[in-house]
Fold this protein.
Amino acid sequence: MNNSIILNYLQQKGYNTVSTDYYNFIEKWENWWKNTVKAHKYHDSSGKERTMHTMGMAKRLSEDWASIVLSERDEIKSIAKNKTQTAKNNKYLEKTAEELNLYDELHEAVEKSAAMGTAGAVLRVTHVKLENNKIVPTKRTKKDIIYLYASQIVPLKVEHGKIIDVAFVSENIVKGKKEYYIERHEKVWDEKLEIDKYVIKNTYLNEDGNEIVKKGILKSYSFNSDIPLFSICKTPIANPLEIDYKTNGMGYSMYGNAEDQLFACDITYHNFVMDFFLGGKKMFYNKKIVGKKTKIVDNKEVTEDVYPDDIMRQQWATYGDEQANFKDEPVITEYNPDLRVEEDTKGIQFCLDLLSFKAGLGMKYYQFNANGTITATQYVGDRQDLVKNAKKYRKNVNRFVANICKGLLLLGRVLFNEQVTEDCDIEVIDQDGFLVDTETAKEEFRKDIAQGIRQPWEYRVKFLGEDEETAKKMVAGEDIEDIEEEEDEDEKDNKNSKKKQLKENEKEE
């Protein structure tokens, strides 16, 4: 996509956009993700262009980060002000998630954010009409979520690293010519209503950058809400390009500082494959036992060698002089090259260790050679970087999902007459417990309550599954120790069993 046309147009409209040069970095990261970088091309001794054998680790890194920070077993839950409203919200979100294939699409969006630093989601409605400056649904009205690459996102206003106003762009071919669609989401102050609200503006440009009019497309519209109908997912690492290229809230690829290590993996793997490819047994035939035959090719007579055993052309070659004596030069000579499997394997493993370290996964995330052993202490030590970075990433993903869900609830209330509210909290519950175990989470929550950072009723909502209204009634006059005692029976039995075992151990000693 020609980002310069889009950026020039937006700059003419008075927006301070991202530098055009920054999108060159995004394109490079995307090429690594697609495994189509120019570095994989080389020329052999004859000058013929060839392509390296590669491992495609940029794609694998992105997939793994997405799997780490968002499991397919995770659940999206709404917590509203009362039990009835919570139930209605969750029922609507569950139904909508299935309709829009939300969980699968979210996973792919997170993968793209890991690869290209940023990914986006925009909520759209189709087949609506505008009456008295208000959006009115029809029988055909539908909601949808479009997920976007970093190259399709142009921040327009950023506050404290958070994108407030944004443009989403796409390119289409219409009658053989390019057209660009720009969808702007801008937060404005409504003097009449005295509220902040988002206004969505639609613009189409031709391939020369001039505006064109589209029939049936609303020029602008608003739902009179400050809930955005878009969401941005960024990686958890600081963007080192922020100063030079004014990225204005854009993220940085998880392998942005590991391109040398990606290439090193490809070089060592290519060498590994070529050792096997070139390491086959070879037979050298004396020219005196090689026959000749002629054939006509393109009306020309061509002479070819005829070998005694034409099994695989790579296996044989000719040598010597046809006039030489067999005593001086043997009829057949074998060549059996050694394969450097162990050296190649160690080289690949070393490069994988460096890559996983540079990409925030820890030193031993990828094990090419599974023959070695590793102690539990070493494993936990190597995993610390992964868990620390994953927790940061998960916070960004939670915000990404929460913004999408609040936008869906807004549309459900305004357009589809659903008895739901966007005035709620959205949590993405980690069912796998990879980032933190339940007991540790509870202990951290209790500490926050003791320090006044959280309220006791929040504990009941998060860990006992109660709605806000019920939780507040239950904690009236009780402290956190009382809450702890009301945990489920399985947990109490488990704790009692551990205490009993400890006492028995003490008696035996």
User: Anything to note?
Assistant: The chain is about 40% helix and 25% strand. The CA atoms of residues 430 and 437 lie 9 Å apart. The radius of gyration is 32 Å.
